[in-house]
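Give me structure tokens for this 660-residue protein.
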Amino acid sequence: MRAWCPHCGALNEFERPPTTAIVYCQHCRKPFGAAAITASAHPGGDNATARSSGPPPAARARHRRNSPSPRAAPGSASQRTPAPRIDPNEPWRESTEPFRTGRPLPSEPEGVIVPEGRPTEANDKDFNARILYQSPDGLETDFILEAANSVGRHPKNQIRLNDREISKEHAVIEKRGSEWWLRDLNSSNGSYVNNRRVRECRLNHGDEILLGSMRLAFCIEDPSHSRSSMRDLVTILPQEPAGATHIHAKLEADDQDFKPVAEVTDIEVLKRDYEKLRLTQELAGIGLTTDIRKLLSKTLDVVFSMLPADNGVIMLVDEDTNTLVPHTVRQRNPHADGQQEILLSSTIVNAALQERASVLSSDAFLDPRFSGAQSIIAQGIRAAMCVPLVAHDKVLGLMHLDSRERVGAFVEKDLQLLKAIAGQTAVAIENARLVRQIEQEAQTRGQLSRFLPPHVVDEMVQGKGRPIQKGGREIEASVVFCDIRGFTNLSESSSPQEVVELLNDYFERLVEVVFRRHGVLDKFIGDALMASWGTIEGDDVGESTYNAVVAAIEFRDVIRELNQERAEVGLSPVMMGVGVNTGSLVAGYMGAKRRLEFTVIGDTVNAASRVCGIADGDQVLISEATHRHVADRIEARYLGTRQVKGKEQEIGVYEALRLA
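Here you go.
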């Protein structure tokens, strides 16, 4: 089969009749109707018909001047374009060599995992086992399970989870016969199934797995069942072996959105800029929200009202699993012929993520250059657009539109419009995440501020401190106890409301001292307060012990001020004793998974409580171990050794008087 190109006059030869209504010239790459193709001399062909055909009159001259026969020898100086490559396995299919502009498309975007293949292609003949994780954004990441699956924070794991509380090699989920088992790999924080810590556990459908702070669901599904969510209809097919998808238009990421007024001379540019501003107003109507589902649903409403798309998909990068997953899916007629699978080309997806380019591929069904791009032609997609969602120089995901019903449904102007919508949407997504982050930080700050000093809270909120997890470490630190002398008698002579007001005022003054001197508030015990110094990683023992003793002296001073105020209104004074001890102890978060408290335990803590117990009212006692660290900085009076409860040996005791 052969035909003369009406554009350049070159002769095109085909091994088999084309299967599309439009073909492209093998030389100038411009389209023309397949009806112009006539039979040539080949087995079973009509030679007479072949001889009678020829280029159109206007094209013959151009052909003689510019275009040699496609059978010219390779490397000939007169040959402008190489002959099409023929696949020996499919001799009737011509080359799908694409036009490429800019940088080459990588097979996988750096840093982001692009899941390729249908979600149900694993264990195709058996029940599908998977692990499902849902992020705070509502992103659902499916991990299809193989026979053995390593789980952890390290990139080499089959299931990689970005959580600081998860060990690098945390656990293994494996199949034993017909059963699935989870096996913990001696992880630091353990593995939990249905809120029960396990070393090894058989998994059942619906079990909740807790690893670190990430909750996962174990699911077993019958592959014969229909997909339960529209997001399950989205599939990114692997890289096409015959070549990348042909891109008809591409807008680079650095294309200028708004030009200075002095550079605008085209009315069409003004129209496009006006349309972008109108879209900004349309999307601004959503308002500042943390509900990304609502935001993206509204975005697709706007897109479908302006563009002739049949399918729309917004995919976001899950920050916890670093995987590109579908978030919001929209079909114009979802019930027309049943829910159809939405296929995305990995070539275009990678271009959007890696190059941050907005891509338009039109008339894919009629374009023979898509013959190798199965992810485009498998459903007869005739037009598709894909744009990245970029905010603050960070790729958040992508937006994909396609059409099956309209030939040439999208043009470059539509691509520019979709790019503008994507830009506004990306900023809105980032703002929503920032609002939620601020709310979470405020909540975290409020919880940590109850017992940690402000500078430590700031580090914890910014992620610089150690993660909050059960366990402790042995360190040398100082512990301070203080309580009211004669509190029982004071309570009997006062009303309950007066006692509450006294304790609140009393503790308020002491806590300010603790945080001002960089201590950690441990707990309130009735009328007693317990605090520690040197328990934060990086604290110097000598300096933290000095701060503990200074805080104890300031405790005494602020209570003196309180007593002066009480005396002015005719109330009895509050007599408080303080005790300080320094030594080895264990500090860390202790308790249950649902409620942890930062505390210290050990004989050093008990001794500090006993020293406090022998202190008189308005007296600060420090142990001999504490005095060794501050002897040259604190003026103290040695009181000798004292026998305290629970200690076989007597403890040397000093009274701290003032700073040296």
